[in-house]
Amino acid sequence: MNTIRIQKEDFDISAEIAALKTSCGGAGAIVTFTGIVRHDDGVTAITLEHYPGMTEHEIARHAEEAQLRWPICGATIIHRIGALKPGDNIVLVATASSHRQTAFEAAQFLMDYLKTRAPFWKQETRGDETRWVDAKPSDDAAADRWR
Amino acid sequence: MTLLYFAWMRQQLGKNAETIELPAGVGTVRELAVHLCERGDTFANVFSDLTRLRAAVNQEYVGWDTPLRATDEVAFFPPVTGG
User: Fold this and answer.
1) How far apart are CA A35 and CA A101, in angstroms?
2) 8-state DSSP, B80
3) What are chain B's domains?
4) How many CB atoms lie within 10 A of CB A128?
5) pTM for the whole thing?
6) Which residue(s) pair with B77 in the sheet?
7) ipTM score assigned to the predicted complex
8) Nearest-CA distance from A13 to chain B in Å?
């Protein structure tokens, strides 16, 4: 079973792992990735905007694709929106499978697609200056390897 | 049809959504973008270079030559930067 949530609130990684473990009885491996707001470059805050509806739809489509490509039992994908500060959690991807290799690969696939396809936009604030973050070619290259 | 704008496009255009009639002579997403450019400098600046933008129709990514219907939800936005 896949769990997909877009929310302002923080998430509890342990609780999400426990829930995935319960829904995927018999899973031998759960891999989690947590994206965190970096402290680098003098960033003091970020704000995340999304396209309600399309975001959930795109993520669900890729979670289903992950289940077709790898024998994973389920995935949990949580992405935060709104105002965040350095050190805050941004995104959680967790995958459950019988064996670690498939869980690792499916989690990487989901993260690479989240970065390049899920309609979120990030604004960074440094002191008085706020600017929209540019998309990175390296993220596109990372997603392209799954084609 | 409903038009949606996100991120810096929303800020520069000063709106996040609007409802319009499918303009006469507009058959594709590209033609809609060209039509919006004709509204004036603000729209022309945002829509002049389509390589900087992405489009979705009814919440699915589409190419610029995708045909449009009068009831479509059309979204324009910059390349995404989540995660």
Assistant:
1) 20
2) P
3) 2-77 (3.10.20.30)
4) 6
5) 0.94
6) B54
7) 0.95
8) 16
